[in-house]
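Annotators were shown the component list below and the corresponding predicted structure, then asked to write short factual statements about the assembly.
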Amino acid sequence: MRRYLLRSYQSVLILKPDIDEARVAEALEKIGEFIKSNGGASLRIENWGKKRLAYRVKKNRFGIYLNLYHTVESAKVVELETKYKLYDLIIKYMVVRLDDDELERALGKETEVEGESKDEDKKAEAKVEEKAKVEEKAEVEEKAEVEEKAEEKDS
Amino acid sequence: MPETKKSSVFSQKICRFCNDDQSKVFIDFYDVKALKPLISERGKIVPSRISGNCAKCQRILTRAIKKARSIALLPFAVEH
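Structure shown to annotators:
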């Protein structure tokens, strides 16, 4: 009966960055169904929010991270992974097996870290946007200067 | 060799993950804040002879970093 062992796993999923919260909730529901259909149950769901990726994944620089602790029949992990692969909102996924003590630790953990990282990422994103704005401004100013010079020459 | 900021960080050769009561060491792959100082500017894993980690923790750490890389939390390589 070892084949039907119910083991605990951690799934980290990266969703497309350009979807709104409603669609994230929708995706979560669907992912919950995936897990249920493979004889498991989700134990804890974390939304890490939008994060900057360390490298580009399918041409995306950002991604919405979801972290799920769940159980799945050990023989059906492959099936679950194929379902992740075929779901179009997920751009990257990773399923990690957890030992009992690891799971205990994960479930007992507070979610303090979550908020901090979110703020940082928001800052990072804001910075990127600011940079873009500054560059735009600089360009505009340059143009203005050039125009001024041209006017001076004319006069 | 010019002194870098990192050398001061690794000046004391004490394992940063071992705890006093010899309980099991956990290093989460999603804890980027803890992992970031242990990869070089290029994204390489800092060897234990420099960071001062013990062999056991270094193995656990290596596994954590590799997991973090595969889910895009840490870079495989930083291009210059």
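Statements collected:
1. The two ends of chain A are 93 Å apart (CA to CA).
2. The CA atoms of residues 75 and 143 of chain A lie 64 Å apart.
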